[in-house]
Q: What sequence folds into this?
């Protein structure tokens, strides 16, 4: 996986959750990309956001588009190669540039205050997080906190 500062941002918007899930699954299986988030803008529009090297993101978005079209509607698909640092701030779930380390300023007390969704999003952005892919999605709050505490204690 490329360093996020040199990464491409891939966006795929679908009408309906089934098409979004199918697209995300295809994107993650096709290339070395990382899932950033799933954004729901209105009840039926869902955008999947991925990051990785430009060629990998392009291949993943193309595969996700084909997969989503088999089961639903694709509203838009787009790849932004090497977005400007300020572009990352447009994404609501980013509080800092993706090139910045997300954990050093978080204490165990601050981690305890995060929701399961926030913990999962943080885990997906953390380069050496002990859980990967679907294991993060299936982990409960305590499992995520335990993994983060293990990371903090080894620092």
A:
């Amino acid at each position: 996986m490329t360093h996020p500062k040199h990464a491409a941002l891939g966006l795929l918007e679908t009408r309906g959750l089934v098409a979004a899930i199918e697209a995300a699954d295809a994107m993650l299986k096709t290339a070395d990309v990382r899932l950033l988030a799933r954004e729901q803008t209105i009840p039926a529009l869902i955008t999947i956001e991925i990051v990785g090297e430009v060629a990998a993101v392009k291949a993943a978005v193309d595969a996700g588009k084909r997969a989503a079209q088999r089961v639903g509607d694709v509203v838009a698909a787009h790849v932004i190669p090497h977005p400007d640092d300020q572009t990352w701030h447009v994404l609501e779930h980013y509080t800092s540039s993706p090139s910045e380390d997300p954990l050093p300023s978080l204490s165990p007390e601050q981690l305890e205050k995060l929701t399961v969704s926030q913990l999962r999003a943080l885990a997906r952005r953390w380069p050496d997080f002990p859980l990967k892919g679907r294991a993060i999605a299936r982990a409960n709050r305590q499992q995520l906190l335990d993994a983060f505490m293990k990371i903090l204690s080894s620092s």
In short: Residues 54-71 form the longest helix (18 residues). Confidence is low (pLDDT under 50) at residues 95-102. The longest strand covers residues 33-42. The helical segments are 17-30, 54-71, 108-112, 116-125, 134-138, 141-154.
